[in-house]
Amino acid sequence: MEILKARIVSDGMEIGTEIVKVDSFLNHQLDIGLFLEIGKEIKRRFSDCAINKILTIEASGIAIAAITALYFDNVPVVFAKKTQPSTMTDEFYGAPIKSFTKGTVSVARVSKKYLHKDDRVLIIDDFLAHGEAAGGLCKLVEQAGGTVLGIAAVIEKEFQGGSQRLREAGYRVDSLAVIEKIENGKIHFKTE
Amino acid sequence: MEILKARIVSDGMEIGTEIVKVDSFLNHQLDIGLFLEIGKEIKRRFSDCAINKILTIEASGIAIAAITALYFDNVPVVFAKKTQPSTMTDEFYGAPIKSFTKGTVSVARVSKKYLHKDDRVLIIDDFLAHGEAAGGLCKLVEQAGGTVLGIAAVIEKEFQGGSQRLREAGYRVDSLAVIEKIENGKIHFKTE
């Protein structure tokens, strides 16, 4: 997705060789005009799938998932929670998610009310790095007996191996901007 | 907003006299069709304001803010963070927010890059209860020298006093469904 890559180059900040900071438009301040383009492009790439639910994880995936849902006939969006809120009194599906940047493990939770065996789910997140969050969300869908039709990430850091691991596990993965490496302060994108 | 009130009655669950659980459509599973109606109604109520930024707080406010931004010419949305992410290396504005349900205090943070003195801000959140979150967000805007033009909540629990305190402090507050009390398992809305 060329306008996204151009935006990452113009407004993103690489920190060392591992992190791209895009909080000016993607995950702190949100450029809703760009999000509409992102949603449209995700729909284009998964237009062959009969998706009836979008699943994401708090917090940065939520706005992308909500705007993208507009292009999928307003299918429900469910976001997994990283902490157990006081009002979450129902039974839930849970999957551990390791954070490599923080060195912690959290549990992604979705109430059993909101994932079912007839769900055909598109998983959406802002970043795909080691694939921990997306892999955990797949587990939640499968605990409910549902089907993961695909995983869409806005930015993939291919060098961290998440997409390869997820594809080897049988999932369809499609990222709008794939970063091969960050070297000498320059972001190298994979050619589409 | 009648369709919202009807939805709260049909799908919400009151827990005791203090909590209304609306996670089937508002803050765990999200009904994007309803969110479009919510966004349209927030725009209607604040149509006289020259808003150039929407501010919310993670996680439940994000989708509402993102969809509402569509009705305000795609103004940027900024969401305050409740924890300091590893990539938040910039200076930030911070305000303490007390959670009455959890009995904790967290700090809402926004990078100084994303709030400015020429900002005319609409604050959006899912719930307005004691007014702690909204009040904290107002402080962030004011630390930056910006102006809070209004506070929009989807559901207000008037009996917890937040809206009154915020209005006494000079803010314009408008909530789409105002709950006066919860009694004997029945939700009583304020008449508009």
Beta-strand residue percentage of chain A: 35-45%
Q: How far apart are the termini of chain A?
A: 8 Å
Low-confidence stretches of chain A: none
Helix content of chain A: 25-40%
Determine the mean pLDDT of chain A: 95
The number of helical elements of chain A comes to 5
General form of chain A: globular
- Give the number of DSSP strands of chain A: 11
Main sheet overview of chain A = 6 strands, mixed
Largest interface: A-B, 39 and 39 residues
Radius of gyration of chain A: 16 Å
Assembly category: homodimer
Decide which structural class fits the backbone of chain A. Answer: alpha/beta
Strand order of the largest sheet of chain A: 5-4-8-9-10-11
Order of helices and strands of chain A: HEEEHEHEEEEHEHEE
